[in-house]
Design brief:
Oligomer: single chain
Largest sheet: 7 strands, mixed
Number of domains: 2
Radius of gyration: 21 Å
Number of strands: 11
CATH superfamily of the largest domain: Vaccinia Virus protein VP39
CATH class of the largest domain: Alpha Beta
Number of helices: 13
Order of helices and strands: EHHHEHHEEHEHEHEEHHHHEHEE
């Protein structure tokens, strides 16, 4: 059996409608529908639009039904269904239980990259703490080939996936470190910039999360003690000893430390950063106008490290 030839735009709308039980936002449903169709056909978004119409064969129709069923009935995240997920202009391999980066994370990282480009920054050293699949570190490394990027995580599953994604992308300017935060990061290393999307969800919040999160993603990648602030506080406290002065970073007012947060944590994280000696501390909002990132810089250079 073949389904009839359809306009690509009509097929996208049809797929998006079927995702409604799982995804409430129309824009997200359409984005997922495009990803499914691109994966199914092996064609880009642009190529499909230029093609205008499509007829799915029996095998493609069955595959699409399977994917939609997994997403709607099993609450399986799309990244795990397709074994990959776009992040910026990269396509990254994904596997459960490694955390899948959210669109909100992608948005602020792309904005951060835009700041670096506008400043003309090419040579710098950056640390991505709690790197997970490596999405942030790998995108920055791919965008700035003259930069040196370090990616740190403690989870063996995340580290394995990071190494796999690094190899697939053939990135030689990324260094992966297995460490519990800064524990195994050499005291000889200094960074111009630190970015992090650490676990920040509270136990109470975790209990209310959808099955698409709780049933598939590792709890340790999501939840932190102390009302979600435990790891954030440790990163803020230790970051100054690993940050160094960089003329372009300072003159362009690029934040040296950028931390993704829960939307209710802005003021608490802002206070932690100020208490740790950071200046120009800002709470930045996402596209939904919720607090998403807290940024700041050292007044001048990193404080002297201990032995």
């Amino acid at each position: 059996m073949k389904i009839k030839t359809m306009l690509i735009t009509d097929l996208i709308a049809q797929i998006a409608d079927r995702l409604m039980p799982e995804l409430s936002e129309e824009a997200v449903r359409k984005k997922y529908a495009w990803w499914l169709l691109e994966k199914l056909t092996g064609k880009s978004h642009t190529d499909l639009l230029l093609q205008r119409t499509l007829t799915l064969n029996n095998e493609q129709h069955a595959q699409l039904e399977q994917w939609i069923g997994a997403l709607v009935k099993e609450h399986k995240p799309l990244g795990y269904i397709l074994d990959e997920m776009p992040f910026g202009n990269l396509m990254l391999r994904m596997r459960t239980p490694v955390l899948i980066a959210r669109m909100e994370t992608e948005d602020w990282v792309l904005q951060f990259i835009d700041k670096l480009k506008k400043a003309g920054l090419q040579r710098f050293t950056l640390l991505d703490m709690c790197a997970g699949s490596g999405c942030i570190a790998l995108l920055i490394a791919a965008t700035f080939p003259q930069a040196t990027v370090y990616a740190v995580d403690i989870c063996p599953d995340a580290l394995a996936l990071m190494h796999e994604n690094k190899a697939r992308l053939k990135l030689t300017n990324v260094h992966i470190i297995a460490s519990d935060l800064f524990d195994e990061v050499s005291h000889e290393l200094q960074f111009d910039l630190i970015v992090t999307n650490p676990p920040y969800i509270t136990e109470t919040e975790y209990a209310t999360l959808d099955a698409s999160v709780k049933d598939w993603e590792h709890k340790h990648a999501l939840v932190a003690a102390d009302e979600g602030l435990a790891l954030i506080k440790k990163i803020i406290a230790q970051a100054p000893t690993y940050l160094r002065h960089h003329d372009t970073v300072k003159s362009a007012q690029i934040p040296q430390l950028s931390i993704e947060i829960g939307y209710q944590q802005g003021l608490a994280v802002e206070r932690c950063m100020i208490d740790a000696g950071f200046v120009n501390v800002r709470i930045e909002k996402d596209s939904a106008h919720k607090n998403r990132v807290v940024t700041g810089s050292l007044a001048d250079v990193a404080i002297t490290k201990g032995p």
